[in-house]
Amino acid sequence: MILKKIKTEHTDEKTGLVVKRITTSEWETFNRKVAINNSLFSCEQKRLIYNKPLLDIPFQIHHIPFKKKIQTWDFEGLEVSKAHAIRQKRLYFAFQQRSAERWDRLTFSEAEGDFQDLATRGLPFVPYSIPKDSSLETWKERKQDALSILNQSQILVPVFCSNHQRDLFEEIFNYEFENSKLIGVQCYNLNDNNNFINLAKIKLRNMRLQTGDEAPLLFGLSYSKVQKSFSNVSGCFAYSCFGFDVLSHRQVFLENMPTEIVQKILSKKVEEIMRYDKTLGGFNLSAEQEFYDGRNITQAFLENVAVAEGLTPYQAIQWANLNEQQNDFNILNSHVLETAYEDKKDSALNYIEAQKERWAVFWKTKMPQLSSV
Amino acid sequence: MVSPIPKWVWKRYAKLWQKFKDKTFTFEQAQKELKHLDRNLISVLFNELRTAGWIAVNLGEGDSRKRVYNLLNPLEIVESVKNDTKKN
């Protein structure tokens, strides 16, 4: 599958949201996609055994975990997930999932080694993590060296940390925005000023795109699935507000966790699992559903899932969470496209502010209001 | 003049109306009633209700730094909308 072009379809002036058309040798689609991540890939593997349909998403992202015990990246599973993505005709991207602390310690020497490691594993899109204190000049030199070891079918994907040194970020990001097909950003806490300002710069650059412009595809990575400090709004939505086109939240790797926490996670009861609620645009627990809706929606959902579907209750909820978030993104895309018409200028803004409680609250309290600019 | 409110605001208004009717209440009392919702969300909710004219905000008796709230009766809202429609 070859990535051919990414073109701007339309930019909504009121929200700054952009619809991009992505064309590959296999398919054409719009942006704002929730990617198949490691855990959903596991779900799909089970579904295959039961000969059940898979998720209709053309992007698959593999988060490579860091094995704390032996202090190396764990490439197990990379080949299998890549082969699966190829069979499903998906755009496949693998990258090293770094914690905020690992980003703090990242040097070019380590980043280059990680890049070389992945470059030799036959990946079409090869990530290069850019250290947080890197300036454009330093990066340009390193990038030149990196490009020299790639073959013709490989594309370098710069991966930033949202906590990049603030005074250096805009120049280096905008340079890559003009020169890359794919850009990854590992996203951290929105309550932190540095993260927020850098993300706002991404949005500002992205919303300057005009219809017909070539555009890079922005991958929002490693953010929290549920934004607990923002009324449990969906992390996918929160980060898509900053211009990310393909989203994949942080993966939890049990191998790195203390036994008691692993046991706690594995013994989660239904009422402790967060379910995406499309009327909220965010997540809630059974207790909240019972209080406001008079019924346990998570439980009711599970009662309708047949064992023959191949998923555990937790996986079934994850599966439904992805589908419903993606449906909401598809509707949002339609509203963004509608804003091209003179009498529909407020379509996307109204959808965000009037249809989904958690989206509305996040939008009104966290996002810069463009109408007053 | 009152204006329409989004469905999500209506849902929370209904919960508050069930409890307080047209009696005065504080932010903290509302927070206790709107279980599972954080302060941030309730602040936005009150702002939506105030802007749409569905809630009256007054200074607290004895402590003017505090605000107290009164929901408008849904029947009054319907009447008000009817009158506005006639005017237009």
Can you give a write-up of this model?
The complex is a heterodimer of chains A (about 375) and B (about 90). Chain A starts with a strand and ends in a 7-residue tail after the last helix. Chain A is built from 14 helices and 17 strands. A six-stranded parallel beta sheet of chain A has the order 4-15-12-11-10-9. Chain A has a domain at about 5-255: TIM Barrel. The model of chain A has no long low-confidence stretch (mean pLDDT about 95). Chain A is an alpha/beta fold and about 375 residues long. Chain B has a single domain (about 5-85), classed as Winged helix-like DNA-binding domain superfamily/Winged helix DNA-binding domain (Arc Repressor Mutant, subunit A), CATH 1.10.10.10. Chain B has helices at about 5-20, 25-35, 40-50, 75-85; strands at about 25, 55-60, 65-70. Chain B starts with 6 loop residues before the first helix and ends with a helix. The model of chain B has no long low-confidence stretch (mean pLDDT about 90). In chain B, strands 1-3-2 form a three-stranded antiparallel beta sheet. Chain B is globular. Chain B is α+β, with helices and mostly antiparallel strands. In chain B, about 55% of the residues lie in helices and about 15% in strands. The longest helix of chain B is centred in the first third of the chain and has 14 residues, at about 5-20. Chains A and B meet through helix 10, helix 13 and helix 14 of A and helix 1 and helix 3 of B.
